[in-house]
Design a protein that fits this description.
The protein has 475 residues and is of the alpha+beta class. It contains 15 helices and 19 strands. The protein is globular and about 60 Å long.
Length: 475
């Protein structure tokens, strides 16, 4: 489906409406990244553009690659009053996977001296890996409190600081969550997983600020050259995955019931205002809250570890933002403000200056956006823009994006060799499994700098800082 694309600019391409499409499909990428995208991305975005009630365009971010239903890096907004739908594939299975980033108040040279012992302590303290369990043991009733309360529940139970809630998307708790819409099996899988990192591409990384691009915004975010930050990347763990699994079946039946043509199994959906659509939204909101609580607890554990090794560390939360969600947001459509259901699957919310949802301290500069690279490459801290809101509902890429599958990575690299190679470059990696290290080899991902530059040149974000890895904890 790459044939027939129209070049809007060096950084934006369009698949014009044709056949059953209800809108065009837009790709934000340079020519090189467009050539790298697998053919399935174009097919999937075409299918998204065929869904009822979609507004403006189906969109792919620069890191887009094949996913379930929607491509990873896919964005689409739907109008409930125009027959718009909600889709499991538009959110993904790792509901509210996201990044939480702290400024530590420490310098690179300070941390470097004690980095090995710090990482040993983090490795002992932070449960990571497939099926990992934490010290928090929840009853069914207590878990319902987590699903309804999110990070607010965590703070009320002694995990973290109340002032941090202002610096979390949704202020730490997504409204509309209803634990009764979450299956008993999903809850059962989560009773011991709050406060755990998980596996796959999830990580906890110690990073140092290598370059500042915008001094004013960096100052507002609390970033300075050679300062040390901590990034935590994880989501809703088993609960989010089970919600996705459950509602694939429920929305599959709903799509047939409401006569919605489905071109790929994971693209099943239901009208937003239908009973099935409303139940999925409420369950999905529970998944968001579970992830927010999870990262809040992890942040508390990290702060405790740092205090043991660096008593002067402050660990001030810069922001916490998710990249697998469906959010109800106000956006301008043809000069009229409308409430839209914005799906971001492997795409980050990136609101520009002035949005009331942002902390007051950030309203003049825009929302912090964290773009993870790999264990062996740089990552970026960006800020949302007004142009990004006009073009892509205030959305941006969420990482480098995979260049090859996990199976392909396993055939090409050995985990021990990956960890040893990174150690030779001065990067400490603590991995729960060698398989996980091999799957996440830096070479398995696209060039994160190319991805970020494409988003920047397209106007979706502005660049604030580049950070380099010092050490990484992997599941």
């Amino acid at each position: 489906m790459k044939e027939g694309l129209v070049k809007i600019s060096d950084w934006q391409w369009e698949m014009p409406m044709h056949g059953p499409m209800n809108c065009p499909a837009w790709f934000f990428a340079d020519r090189g990244l467009m050539l790298e995208m697998d053919a399935k991305v174009f097919e999937q975005l075409h299918n998204v553009a065929c869904l009822p009630g979609i507004v403006r365009a189906a969109m792919a971010m620069p890191d887009a690659h094949w996913g379930y239903g929607f491509p990873i890096g896919g964005v689409a907004a739907f109008d409930a009053n125009a027959g718009g739908v909600i889709s499991v594939g538009g959110v993904g299975y790792d509901i509210s996977c996201g990044v939480r980033c702290f400024a530590t108040g420490l310098r690179r040279e300070q941390v470097a001296k004690g980095l090995a012992s710090l990482m040993e302590d983090l490795f002992r303290t932070i449960p990571a890996g497939v099926g990992s369990e934490g010290k928090i043991r929840l009853t069914p009733e207590r878990l319902d409190e987590v699903l309804a309360g999110g990070a607010r529940w965590a703070v009320e139970n002694g995990y973290g600081l109340r002032e941090e809630l202002e610096y979390i998307e949704e202020h730490g708790c997504m409204q509309g969550a209803d634990p009764s819409c979450v299956s008993a099996l999903a809850k059962e899988r989560q009773y011991r997983q709050v406060g755990t990192l998980g596996s796959g591409n999830h990580y906890l990384e110690i990073q140092s600020v290598d370059e500042i691009y915008c001094e004013d915004t960096a100052g507002v975010f609390g970033l300075e050259k050679d300062g040390v930050v901590v990034s935590i990347h994880c989501g809703s763990r088993a609960l989010g995955h089970q919600i996705g699994t459950d509602y694939i079946q429920i929305l599959g039946r709903a799509a047939k019931k409401y006569g919605i043509p489905i071109r790929e199994r994971e693209l099943v959906c239901a009208p937003i205002l239908s009973p099935e659509g409303e139940r999925y939204f409420k369950a999905m909101a529970c998944g968001v809250n579970c992830a927010l609580a999870n990262r809040q607890v992890l942040g508390h554990l990290v702060r405790e570890v740092f205090s043991r090794h660096f008593p002067s560390a402050s660990l001030r939360l810069i922001y916490d933002v998710s990249h697998n969600t469906c959010k109800v947001e106000a956006h301008e459509v043809s000069g009229v403000s409308k409430r839209l259901y914005v799906h971001r699957k492997g795409a980050t919310r990136a609101f520009g200056p002035g949005r009331p949802e942002l902390p007051e301290a950030y309203r003049d500069v825009g929302q912090p956006v964290f773009i993870g690279g790999t264990m062996g490459t740089c990552s970026y801290i960006l800020a949302g823009t007004e142009m990004g809101e006009e073009l892509a509902w205030g959305s941006a890429c969420h990482g480098a994006g995979r260049a090859m599958s996990r199976n392909a990575a396993l055939k090409r690299w050995k985990g021990r060799d990956v960890v040893a190679s990174l150690a030779s470059k001065g990067i400490i990696v603590k991995a729960v499994s060698w398989q996980g290290a091999a799957e996440e080899a830096p070479g398995a991902y696209k060039d994160v700098t190319a991805v970020v530059n494409a988003a920047y040149n397209a106007g979706l974000v502005k660049k604030v800082a580049k950070v380099l890895p010092m050490a990484c904890l992997k599941g």
